[in-house]
Amino acid sequence: MILHTLASAGPISFSYDPQWRIVFGSGFMMSALLAGALISVAAGIIGYFTIARRSTFAAHAIAHIGLPGATGAVLLGLPVSLGMGVFAVAGALTIGVFGKKASKREVATGTILAFALGLGLFLARMSTAATAQLQSILFGSILTVTDGQIWGFAIFDVVLLAVMAIVYQPLLFSSVDEQVAQAKGVRIQAMNLLFMVLLAGVVTLATQAVGTLLIFALVVTPSAAANTLARSPRSAIAWSVVICFLSILSGLLLSSMFPAPPSFAIVAVSTLAWAASQAIDRARRY
Amino acid sequence: MNPASSPAAYGSPSRPIASFRDAAVKRGGRLIWSNGTFDVPAGSISAVVGSNGAGKTTLLNVELGLIPLSHGSVTVLGKPAGQMNRRIGYVPQSYASDIDANITAEQSVALGLHGSRFGFHRITSADKSKIAWALKRSGIPDKAKFRLSEMSGGMRQRVAIAQALVADPDLLLLDEPLANLDLAGQRDLADTLASLNSDLGVSIQIVAHDINMLLPILQGAVYLLDGHPHYSPIANVMDSDLLTHLYGTEVEVVKTPQGDMFVRPDPAIERRRPHLHTPLEAAEFHSDGAGGIESDAPSDVRPDPQEARA
Fold first, then answer.
1. Is domain A26-277 given the CATH code 1.10.3470.10 in the classification?
2. Does the interface predicted TM-score (ipTM) exceed 0.95?
3. Rounded mean pLDDT, A255-270
């Protein structure tokens, strides 16, 4: 299908578009930027904990587990994000329950991930509508974000911030040192499940921008970059929100200047930010 | 609040720090240990000893109320196990593992103050001085701004001790604190623990498989023998027959004329090992046609001092 899209575009041209200001200033770009800002807040917060809890693979997997939900929703005529969200939360809880130990978690996560991808493909093949939607589910479509989606993002952010204001300390404690936190009365399994549900929510949001395949670059990569630069959990969270938003902003900017899909440009910038952070870290050490 | 003058409130030696009454633990259907009836005196430094898999860490987890008993009862600091955990500082054996969070020593210690509470907590200046005090007591006053991910295992362990200390515990539980430390580090840690005990009145229980470095500071030990935990003053534990039985290998308690005690494997075992060669002997081994020197092991195998002590 991707090949087909490329073929229909005729000879490959990669030229600067001098009219980019018009494209960038348009209404759908402003919606995309707003959606990007709301997604960055959620991804930056949860990304820090994803790294601290060593659950980066789970973040990647949850996006894929959402795939059959998304294609199934298309099949039933339901909103894609609803199906995606339901499957992502169910998958996240399954990983959370089965994967208490890191070693077991990898296997549990990978197994569910593979099954979900297969199921997603099966459901997609059952209808032409789902097949048609598959590319935007896999690679995102931030330029077609609707007002309804933006409201959904905003409500999610408010809920996430409220929950964080309450559980920040015990969540951090259990992320950094689970054994001591448990001895000090933190309900570590409750924290684990809460984290997984929040992660599933954030992944559902972020897939609408970059799709299930590229989710890592938006939820984990900016936080990994922030982690090497910042010196405290709070500043790392702030930095990862900023890096995440800058990736989306410059990605959208690049995609309006050049004929590159926004998802690619976003992922490229976030990867560059991470590479730069690693270079800075190395320079500091030697 | 002056942190330096806040000794543990729980100081009366008449009330034991931990009381086991016919306690038994099962995990996954398997009986770990049973018939545990003993008291650990308050204000003491004691070890928890036993062979691998005897249930030493399980015993700490029972005292923390994290593992339920299958029989009997355990009282810690006067309440059923698990109810007084805010008065207990716990240092698990996890400090050697990698840390992915970018957290500094100072921030880690702060979690010992507010980490288990919901809501936002600003670090007050009183908190800050308390954190600085805890880092100083655990011997790393200059490491506050270091990231845990940049620290060695030994340093991280001291951060963990500071985190346990910052909440003014009455009891410190340490799981294998000497593992991964070199000799100087082990001695430093023993000194630190002794001064915490004498200056602040903190009771301390230490899980250890090698107790030599701790012997000078220990007053007693819980020993896990044949599936039953017992407590005994250290002089009674230091018995060749008991330790031999406990570790399942020949062990000898040696007393020097100065009164120092140490534990070592039975000399008969040592004699069976290849001996360390003098340079002269080594030269013989490497010259052509070397012979005449008896060895029941390849010449390049040297006895491992760690192994010999264990």
1. yes
2. no
3. 89
